[in-house]
Write a structure and sequence with these properties.
Family: Belongs to the 5'-nucleotidase family.
Signal peptide: 1-32
Largest sheet: 6 strands, mixed
Strand content: 25-35%
Main location: other
Helix content: 25-40%
Shape: globular
Number of strands: 30
Distance between the termini: 54 Å
Number of helices: 16
Cofactor: a divalent metal cation
Strand order of the largest sheet: 6-5-4-1-15-16
Domain 5'-Nucleotidase C-terminal: 370-548
Length: 596
Amino acid sequence: MTPLTGPSRRQVLAGAAAAAAAPLVGAAPAQAHRPTKPKTYDLTVLGTSDTHGNVYNWDYYRDAEYDDSAHNDVGVAKLASLVKQIRTERRGRATLVLDAGDTIQGTSLATYYAKQEPITSTGETHPMARAMNILDYDAVTLGNHEFNYGLPLLDKWIRQLGFPALAANAVNERTGRPAFTPYLIKKVSLGHGAPTLRVGILGLTNPGTAIWDRGHVEGRLRFEDMVATAAKWVPVMRQRGADVVLISAHGGDSGTSSYGPELPNENPCAMIAEQVPGIDAILFGHAHAEVVERFVVNARTGERVLMSEPSKWGQRLTRMDFTLERDRGRWQITAKRATMLNSNTVPEDPKVLAAVRGQHAKTVAYVNQVVATSAVELSAAESRYRDTPILDYINKVQTDTVTAALAGTQYANLPVLSIAAPFSRTAVFPAGDVRIKDVAGLYIYDNTLEAVVVSGAEVRAYLEYSAKYFRTFGPGAPVDPAQINDPAVPDYNYDTVSGVDYDIDISRPVGQRITSLTRPGSGTPVADNDQFVIAVNNYRRSGGGNFPGIVKTQIYNEQQEIRQLLIDWAQAKGSIDPADFFQPNWRLVREGVPVF
């Protein structure tokens, strides 16, 4: 890949704040010589992140306006209204708009223009490019989900943007040079004859992409440490004239990683602020958290670095405000703060809606296609703590697909296991017509299906690792399903496994919870040296979640999207009946007594 740059854009205009007051007429001579107070100027930086394919305030899985228990709204159309409101308020003063990544994946709208009518084939402008170009960003940072659909589609989307896409730590494996634009220095006019302010913006993407999208990037890109990359480029930006340095980073501020230590830290933004001198503020994303304002003191300079994260999906907009003075030919930031705006306070921007209306309508029509009829309602509401038919549906399709593919191979006689996670607590197949949106609501990620060979010992270790999802409850203690899981472990990192029978004893310590692991129906214990094939998604097989024993050579990998396999199976059968696939094979217990 060659470095990619966005086209040039108009410079942001700004105006000066009120001039300092002149000495009073008739003041005493001593007062007449009092130094004039320096003029102050201001800069506002607006930040979005993790918009994840949301343009309209719409839930494609429910085919209705988006709503949640907190009455949040979503979408770039909402963000555009907030941005327009602030630009109007600040007319003539400097305002920049940045995004911290994860833009082109996450909704049926985004999936449609990556999978059903990919922009690489049709040449159509991606809906997120249409929407963001109207909002008129100054730069976007690439998130890890930008790589989900492969580099050709990513490159196509970047070329459709009217502004640069940044990722300084994504390096071309062959040349060792940045594969994308690492930074830009934006010239900002502060008006009233003031010298130009040069704002440096450095983009950092997430190193976890090397695991999560290994199939797309291995041998082509490497992802370097975000802290080290900032330490490399911030001095360069300063040397090239940046008066203010901002970082737009797709990584959280917790300092932890969801994967093992073999890759650079996944969420290092507080570490960047603390360890790298010369940074004024960091807009960050990836964790989907709302961090209104956080200050981290740089260990070398003692300067406070302003940090903010604007939640997810367009629900929030970060606003950073900087006050500046000109002192001896240099710009100085004298004050900085951050606030957060809620997108449910404004209507959707009509220009953004109009630009994406046709694509939105086409997506709505697609997801409402009927694929099968369900004999009964199937719900995922209890899938985290009770074996449910709707997750067995996923495991049935995955098992059938892998079994058929391995027929006639050396692995044909091995039992096939399958993993499925409760991605959505609200997924439902209604009794009667099941539509594409219902299947998409159950399997919300664009994962593909793979398979590897595992031993009985590895199956047990895998299940033990998965079982850390649950809190510990002593025998007889009340168990509230709403509080049953460790909040540090997300639902998507709890896997159920079909093809073996097992008990999870949640009264026992983590690592000692699989108290029974047997062959289905027979009660024969699984031996450590038994061999199985396990059907698994590409995220998990690549190391996502850091599960043991699963990162190994695939024996099946036909790049088939699991969600599409679920749709195809339903269409071929014409009906979805739990009698065809539901096999209760696991339960939560305490000292052998079922919890539910």
